[in-house]
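agent: user wants the full assembly modeled, not chains individually. Plan: 1) parse entity lines 2) check alphabet per entity 3) run joint structure prediction 4) return tokens. Steps 1-2 passed, two entities, 519 residues total. Proceeding.
--- entities ---
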Amino acid sequence: MKKKIIKVHQPKGFNNRRQFLKLGGLAVAGSGLLWACSSDDDQGMMPPPDSEVFDLGEGDLGVLNYAYALEQLEADFYTKVVNSFYGSISDEEKQVLTDLYYHEVNHRDFFKTAITAAVEGNTELVLPTLEFDYGDLDFGNRDQVLGTAKVLEDTGVAAYNGAGKLISNPDYLLIAGKIVSVEARHASAIRTLINPGSADFAGDDAVTVDTGLDAAMDPSDILAAVAATGFIKTEFTANNLP
Amino acid sequence: MNIIKFLDDFTTSNILDGKSSRRDIFGTFGDLGKKAAIAAVPFGLAALSSKKAYAQSMDADPVGALQLALTLEYLEDEFYDLALQSGVLPTGRPETVYMQISKHEQAHVDFLIAGLEGAGVTPVEKPTFDFTAGGAFDPFNENGAGQDTAYAQLLALAQAFEDTGVRAYKGQAGNLLGSPFLTAALQIHSVEARHASEIRRLRGLKGWITNNERGTGMPDATQPVYNGEENVTHGGVDVTTLGNGEAFTMEASTEAYDEPLSGDDAVAIASLFIVEE
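--- prediction returned ---
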């Protein structure tokens, strides 16, 4: 049964992005949300009844498309970062952000190729190329760039950790494992750039103190948080993922 | 534990989402008891003295995967404890970093022990460790290496242990597929990766592994930790062929993906620091 599609609209702005992960902790009533946040003033309006909105799909395909969406976001973000580095960027920061750009572009293109192969060329099942809009995010502002990078990397870690149990093919599980640890390495590096000399690389805000466990979140929570940023303009649904 | 409580916990949807209490998570581990009962052969220290049998057993099922994980966590936990007690670590960033990592490794040991016990499985006992690896190293400056040499070795061993931990957990993911342990193992795996990145950067390296390079200043003996990291083919896709830019060079392509380590290889690395009795 097709779930009702609800237009999600969130105001943009850095304050909102800071709640990215926190928002993920909120209960989402039904997972049939529409993950899009254009700046249109059509809050609360329903989309066309027979919309051609892409659904990520179910099972392993759904998880792969979900990962592809997140990697598209990361790759696009870092592309913008490296194309106009903020002023007075240090050599170390430039090296880290450039590497992250390379890695995320690599991940993104890998998923496109791997999913296309998995669906035997039936490209209607492959998440399309998404469009992004960073609103008033200032790519010339170090704090905003690194702060957003931190949230994206932490979110990637929580997303892959939460998606593992949804994967049934061990080959895909291994691939997710190969990528998630690199996302965690990124998160650690960005966190130390933000707060040098601290314990933030695996800070108590990210790693539960009494268990030593990183976060793991369901797709619905992750996508609600992503939707809340307003970064992704292209609408898609995740009606078949928890 | 109380079976009613366990069933109650297990049917709670957010048991392994990182927000649940330790008790809840143990409840989830408890579920493995039912599955593990079929294959549960408690591992003791005796098994460790027979590396081959140990490794084979460890690769077999979720219990084996967790026993291997516990062995590696014992190693890391004791290493960081001794490092913090050694007087070798400079104050400031190094000490702050080691304290945070030590906290996590202790939590991982406690978590895995309680989880295995909750599942009705006897956890492997803590081995006797020798972080000099038979006299090759002196990371705690106990044998006259001097502070600078000892500190360099302290960092090098930490890097080797963390990068090994990341690869070893990844290598066990398939054995945990379909088990309630999988998510928790992934949640530990990414913490090890956060640690690895920080230790590497503390040593002046990138936080990620390029090709199969162990990195400047790493002893030859640590090369097995990095062998295989040069792989660029994932799910049949050679990622260096995906594009022409810098993102698809060997360097970037190998950095972008971490590789698994087999149970055998992880045990072989850990065994360098385990005293057989």
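agent: reporting back. The radius of gyration of chain A is 17 Å. Strands of chain A lie at 6-7, 33-34, 54-55, 236-237.
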